[in-house]
Amino acid sequence: MDEITIIMPCYRIKHIDRVYESLVYSCRNFDKTPLFLIILDSGSILNIDKYIEDKNIRFLSHTDPLNVKGNSQRNFALDYVKSKYLIYHDDDNFFHPNFFNVIVPMLKYDKNIIVGQYRGNNRWFDAKPEMVKPGLIDIAQVILKTELMRGEVFIPDVNQDGYMFEKLYNKNPSDFIFHEEYLTLYNSYC
What pTM was computed for the model? Predict the structure, then answer.
């Protein structure tokens, strides 16, 4: 699991316990969890004592008062990523219990991976090439090779999951593989 880092901007602190529980449970068949970077903005108040025992969790503080949400925190955290793969996982998404059971064996293909996401109320984001577009893909569906993100910047305060991934996908579609199973869950489901 050393080859994966998860970056999670923490804007909705009320979800962090559930996200963490879903991560730990989905890693139950592995010796340890991936490095989990949780980026707190200057206004976030979180009792981190219960997470201190987990050596794979790092709390980073991003305190730029003009850019305290999502994209700025993702850009900030990328400098701390040393692993081959990264997952941008927002604090309103959860890992399916089989997420890592499926993903880890797929890393041998040395590709970026896109998985399906269940969004609740009979809505899904499918893992298909034609779905790599704005409004049809969520950030938590993509497992990226870190090198692909080097030099890329998320625009602060713009909802751009689809724009970023469409851009990255169009650079080299053959460097992506798709797995149809719904391995991430949007918070309205949980």
Answer: 0.87
Residue closest to 72 by CA, chosen among 64, 80, 84? 64
Q: CA gyration radius for the chain? A: 15
Measured distance CA(45)–CA(68) in Å, rounded: 14
62 - beta bridge partners?
A: 41
Q: How does pLDDT run across 152-189, given as a tens digit for each residue?
A: 988 876 667 778 888 899 999 999 999 999 999 887 54
CATH 3.40.50.1970 fits 4-186, yes or no: no
Structure token digits, residue 142: 């993509």
C-beta separation of 175 from 111 below 8 A:
yes
45-71: burial string, b at 16+ Cβ within 10 Å, e else: eeeeeebeeeebbeebebeeeebbebb
Structure tokens at 179: 């797995």
The residues spanned by each domain of the chain are 4-186
Helix (H) or strand (E) holding 10: strand 4-10
Q: What is the pLDDT of residues 43-62, one digit of tens each?
A: 555 566 666 667 777 777 77
